[in-house]
Amino acid sequence: MHLSRILLATAGLSLIASPIVLANQKPTPRPEFKTRVVATGLQSPRGIVVGRDDEVYFTEVPTPGVAGGLNGVKVLDVRKGKISTVNTGEPEPVDITMGEDGTLYWTCRTAGVILQRNPDCSVSPLLTGLDRPTGITADLFGNIFFTEVPEPGMGGGTNTVNVDHGDAERILNVGDPEPTDIAVAFGGTVYWTCTSAGVIVSRDRLGNVEVLLSGLDKPMGIALNRNRDRLYWTEVPTPGVSGADGGTNEVWEYNLRNGRTTLVNAGDPYPADVTVARDGTVYWTCTSAGVIVEARRTRGHP
């Protein structure tokens, strides 16, 4: 579905925001990234984040909604190719992030909680009583941003974008049709994908909400690089279908400084979530193939 604008509501205020990029303006794909698979044999990997020492943390959800099942949080040492288990047994650990102090946080959608791994490696609830929490990210100051999607695809409903300051929670936006994943920049600007509307939305620290990119094809995962000047996202219009079989799933980069959009990869069967390492290396989970893919920029490209 190609949209030139979308109606959003925030803090009781309705507005119409114009997009910057339309689907028919996407550039011709260029070989700017070289990809390779860095982990195989995974069980429905979903959320992903790069840690402080460039380990890749990810969630697996082979039995969504089943407590005590095979779902878990794991970590990949890319250099050694070794995978270790961080935690298991949650009903649906959808997305994961890491704070500046190294604390891991993840959303458990069906249980309605956000969990954290403590310094002693124990796991405890950070927030409870949530309504299908989905996307999650952390800023430099320990604030946790997350989305709740009880009504996917329902514009004007009860889906929300939120922040937890540690001593209080605040709703940043309400009524978005499907705020799937979320990222936050240095200055406090928050970005999130709206899968069903095919847009990426931004909210600055003053509360101004606008559509940054529109005409997208089922955007899901989203992430910023270390400098917070490049935005990455995945599009999954054909989940489980590879490019060889006619799938049109893609991974994209958007330069927030000059507005340049670059195709990172096309044809992956199910690029669910994306993250970026300190050196700019991009990683994403492929849920249906059970792999994690790495993309590095080729020489000659900035």
Structure, described:
The chain has 302 residues and is mainly beta. The chain has one domain (17-297): Methylamine Dehydrogenase, Chain H, CATH 2.130.10.10. The chain is built from no helices and 26 strands. The strands form seven sheets. A four-stranded antiparallel β-sheet has the order 3-26-25-24, with no helix packed on it. Strands 4-5-6-7 form a four-stranded antiparallel β-sheet, with no helix packed on it. A hairpin with a 4-residue loop joins strand 9 and strand 10 (113-117). The two termini are 32 Å apart. The model is unreliable at 1-25 (pLDDT under 50).
Strand content: over 45%
Helix content: under 10%
CATH class: Mainly Beta
Order of helices and strands: EEEEEEEEEEEEEEEEEEEEEEEEEE
End-to-end Cα distance: 32 Å
| Class from helix and strand fractions | mainly beta
Strand order of the largest sheet: 3-26-25-24
- Please tally the helical runs, counting DSSP H or I stretches of 4 or more residues: 0
- Residue ranges: pLDDT <50 for 5 or more in a row? 1-25
The CATH superfamily bears the name YVTN repeat-like/Quinoprotein amine dehydrogenase
- CATH architectural designation: 7 Propeller
**Domain count:** 1
User: Quick one: how many beta strands?
Assistant: 26
- Main sheet: strands, sense, barrel: 4 strands, antiparallel
Q: And the CATH topology?
A: Methylamine Dehydrogenase, Chain H
Oligomeric state as shown: single chain
Give Rg in angstroms.
Answer: 18 Å
Which overall shape is indicated by the principal axes computed on the Cα atoms? globular
